[in-house]
Amino acid sequence: MYDPTIFENLKVAVENYVYDLDNLASEITITNRVDNMEMATMSRSFQLQFVLADEPGVEAEVVLEASLKDLAAELLEVEGENPGCTLLVRFYMQIDDVEVECAQIEELLHSIWDQEKPPTQTISYVYGQGSNVLMNKIEVTFNQRINEDQMEDIPSLIDHVIESLQHLNDL
Q1: DSSP structural state of residue 78
Q2: Residue 59's closest CA among 135, 122, 114?
Q3: pTM of this prediction?
Q4: DSSP secondary structure string for all residues of 104-158
Q5: What span, in angstroms and rounded, lies between the C-alpha atoms of 57 and 93?
């Protein structure tokens, strides 16, 4: 009988919780879902993007990734290996003043996520639209890999994402 992988189990748990917030609670609106298998590296990637239902200005993305090494360690039960997945959270928003708003975003997300490493902010703009329309891609990364032991933390994780969306929309 087929036993789902760590990646599959975590993906389904994230999907279920987030889709319930969209379909049942109407708290968020899912804007995109990507589920990829990269054939060249035999890696898996899952992204789920959403916005607050009443404030669609800032978009969140939950990203779950697993490499071939992770899958092999899990399926072959390699001794000494601790298979798991990489998790990261991204936010996408427009900003006007890089110096002021990026500092506010960093401080805000640090207070919510309490990460050792500050969020990474990547600023870009589309040539021809002027440099006053700036997009900020903000990444919150986690030092440890996750597995099914963290399954019960998924609601808390998504609640932190929603809290972040609420505060980022207020900036």
Answers
A1: -
A2: 135
A3: 0.92
A4: HHHHHHHHHH--SSPPEEEEE--TTS-TTSEEEEEEEE-SS-B-GGGGGGHHHHH
A5: 7
